[in-house]
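Contributing new records

If you add data, match the layout below exactly. Sequence lines come first and carry their own label; structure lines follow with theirs. Keep one chain per record. Anything else will be rejected by the validation script.
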Amino acid sequence: MQLMFSEAKLSLEHPDKATDQHAINVGGVEGVLRTYAAMKVAKPNLAIPEFERLIEVQSAGGLGAVVDEGLKKCG
């Protein structure tokens, strides 16, 4: 659900990107990662390996490419 909320938020806050599917997808994943970070504050032992990997990719500046690759696999 958080992915959809984050995508909607990006579209509403940045109407110029409302038709940019790449920006919407990346913004959605970034919102999920922000939510995950907040969850980890409340539960420090929480660890979701895929989210941890995405955080590393995001830190390295490669989140957009990973999101695009994931979407290709979804068909």
